[in-house]
Write a structure and sequence with these properties.
Blueprint (H helix, E strand, L loop, with lengths): L15 E5 L5 H11 L6 H6 L5 E8 L2 E11 L2 E9 L8 H15 L4 E7 L3 H9 L3 E11 L4 E10 L3
Parallel strand pairs: 4-5
Antiparallel strand pairs: 1-2, 2-3, 3-4, 5-7, 6-7
Bound molecules: coenzyme A.
Pfam families: Acetyltransf_1 (PF00583)
Family: Belongs to the acetyltransferase family. RimI subfamily.
Catalytic activity: N-terminal L-alanyl-[ribosomal protein bS18] + acetyl-CoA = N-terminal N(alpha)-acetyl-L-alanyl-[ribosomal protein bS18] + CoA + H(+)
Length: 162
Amino acid sequence: MPKRDDSYCAAGELDLTIRPLEPRDLPEMLNIELQGYSHPWSEGIFRDCFKPSYRLWGVCQGGSLVGYAVISYVLDEVHLLNLCIHPGCRGQGAGKLLLRYLLAEAARECMNQVILEVRLSNNVASKLYRNEGFEEIGRRPRYYPAASGREDARVMTLLLQP
Ligand SMILES: CC(C)(COP(=O)(O)OP(=O)(O)OC[C@H]1O[C@@H](n2cnc3c(N)ncnc32)[C@H](O)[C@@H]1OP(=O)(O)O)[C@@H](O)C(=O)NCCC(=O)NCCS
């Protein structure tokens, strides 16, 4: 895997592709996860998601994973559990591309609604979701661990079918 630095995803050089993830992708996923979150998922949590009722999509540049999304399907509802882009590749469209892809796939699979939680302080992700049509439907108090105590989650949904 090439070493990533600030020049790794230089503007105009992006050549992004999306593919399903497999357990062999776990080391690259964990590397991104550890750099992406103050309270990252463990390898065990990721492993538990490789089941038929989940979808794991990776966004790649060349042969390297630069981000992923983890989604669970329950009846007609999709729960977006994790969406993360490598810090060196953010702000260049990879997150939006991946989100749009997973929404299109969910619609193709006849799912009706997407639900997600996002930290109140996560303005970048909240803006991304709003721009893609998600609406806030409530809050979950003290949902996330935080540096000091707990942080509320914004709950957002998107209807997929007309
Ligand atoms: C949230 C995240 C997935 C976005 O991925 P990204 O590749 O950086 O986002 P994109 O470049 O595709 O930008 C998509 C939208 O996000 C918003 N955005 C991206 N970077 C932003 C910034 N620095 N400031 C404000 N908004 C920003 C914009 O709405 C942007 O759309 P626009 O370019 O049309 O204005 C990424 O920042 C990330 O991995 N964050 C850490 C993990 C995380 O918080 N995940 C969400 C958990 S709910």
